[in-house]
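**Sequence with structure:**
===
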Amino acid sequence: MTNPDRAADTPQQDDGDTWIVAANSEMKIRLRSLTLYLQRGGALNDIRLIEGADGTWTMWVRLKDKPGEFRLNRFQSEHPKTYKDVALAIACCRRDFGYQGAITLLTERFPGGPDGPAAKAADYNFNGAHQ
């Protein structure tokens, strides 16, 4: 059971607590910690997959009993767990985490680059006026 009096950014040493890192307003959870959290009865409320400008996908999760959104990090690393294939990322959500809810897909990539037609369209508001 997680002790709420402990600092969230302190690694828990072999006591079975989930280690959730909160720093610079970007909250992270390691893959192993998420797996342990789920095995001990935790649940996911939401999953968001974001395609970065380099074409890789990162996973963000919302935990049932903790506020905020957490970026999934690799095991024993401060770097995000990334997927080259969105289908693999979705399969991981379903198979590895047992999550059967909606998965939101977002992209930071625009066809034609930052000055292409998709990027320009994203700069316009609903009235058609440029922001």
Notes: Residues 1-24 have pLDDT under 50 and may be disordered. Helices lie at 31-39, 86-96, 117-122.
